[in-house]
Amino acid sequence: MDSVRLDRLSENVGHDVRVLAWVYNIRSSGRMFFLQLRDGHGWVQAVASRDEVTAVVWERLSELTEESSIDVQGTVTKHPKQNAFEVQLKDITIVHRSEEYPISKKEHGVDFLLDHRHLWLRSKRQWAIQRIRNTLIQGIYDFMEQEGFLKIDSPILTPNACEGTSELFMVPYFDQTAYLSQSGQLYLEAAIFAHGNVFDFGPVFRAEKSKTRRHLTEFWMMDAEMAFATHEDTIAVQEKLVTFLIAKVLVQNRDDLTTLERDVAPLLKITPPFIRLSHEEAVTRLHSLGSDIKPNDDLGGDDETLLTAQFDKPVIVEKYPAAVKAFYMKRDPANLSRVLCDDMLAPEGYGEIIGGSQREDDYAVLKQRIEEQKLPLKDFEWYLDLRRYGSVPHSGFGLGLERLVSWIGGLKHVREAIPFPRTIYRLRP
Ligand code: 4AD
Ligand code: MG
């Protein structure tokens, strides 16, 4: 008999089916067994009554342990009241009888759970999170395709820094040193000259010493880059993308959001236009809220939280002081001490989810910036070439996937948003 996926049981009410699954939970009343099963697609309760199954089946049920893998047959019934289905179990084969499972239903400390991340992924909450992440990944591809962006894969091993030299992971590379990519942006800038609008999506690395709930050392970023595009043009795409992604999760992952006990009311409010503030305006507001941020400071995590608490939509803070931002950002012609950049800050204290900017497109100015920042000019010659052969105004942004998953899922820490988190203290499992 072909097996049936647990998310397709509704199509099989009244029929006998075969299910391949794991046992999430076992309850027994002596005459009855109640098994919570999961198969990767869904969850169901299987019920067996001593009077209705053979002695062999009853014996196998009695031997079952949590997390055992099983092959069962039974009849699908609909719960009389709830919109739920059950399997009236008739037969069972134990594929593998699990040893005593280390993650019990009692509360565990987060370090214990992270040490057992390879098992923790099976729990319902973690399952829901990865499903939301998957919707966002698919949604990003859908949106970018719809908007005419071509996917370009940027390299992970690179000779130079994209986002400053202090957070680089070094890798021995034969007789040279390579760095793990912090962002594919510079390579995407090359690709716009071939394809117009492009994006990449992959793991990036930051040797972040930060221990905050927003920082990982390995995370996934979608970089987008557009030719003949200004600072304003990139903000319009960012806003449309985030709106699209939230709407998609609200449709596809309602049950998962419920599993996470995520209040969806704040997500339903995410419609364009988002809030727009200049960095200068943001600083003024922050002062009125009690922050001691200096006029030319970057916004710290606490400032981001304080500021976004004032609004129920994402806040786009633009035109930061040039000194706190990357070398490639174009200066604001109206105020040369500032750059044409934006950070999109998520509401509810989740902080920066997107960083974007218009890029410096003038050869001489860009060369000067590279020299000012004491970056190795030799390694940036190819990047400067892009300003020598048909340079255009261009802009782009990078979206941090785990930050987005955390916000949408209402997670406390970004480490739950990625299957195997890497932080300053964690390289295992
Ligand atoms: O603001 P960032 O550093 O921007 C760039 O790397 C640009 N080159 C992107 C571009 O223009 N193509 O990083 C982009 C996003 C941040 O807004 C944040 O969401 C996420 O990446 N991010 C992190 N997420 C988790 N852990 C970290 N350590 C992160 N650092 C950045
Ligand atoms: Mg940033």
TrEMBL record:
EC supergroup of this enzyme: ligase
Domain Aminoacyl-transfer RNA synthetases class-II family profile: 131-429
Regions that span the bilayer: none
GO biological process, one term: asparaginyl-tRNA aminoacylation
Keywords noted in UniProt: Aminoacyl-tRNA synthetase, ATP-binding, Ligase, Nucleotide-binding, Protein biosynthesis
Keyword S-adenosyl-L-methionine assigned: no
Keyword Iron-sulfur assigned: no
PANTHER family (alphabetical): ASPARAGINE--TRNA LIGASE, MITOCHONDRIAL-RELATED (PTHR22594:SF34), ASPARTYL/LYSYL-TRNA SYNTHETASE (PTHR22594)
EC number per UniProt: 6.1.1.22
Similarity annotation: Belongs to the class-II aminoacyl-tRNA synthetase family.
SUPFAM superfamilies given in the database record: Class II aaRS and biotin synthetases, Nucleic acid-binding proteins
Protein name according to UniProt: Asparagine--tRNA ligase
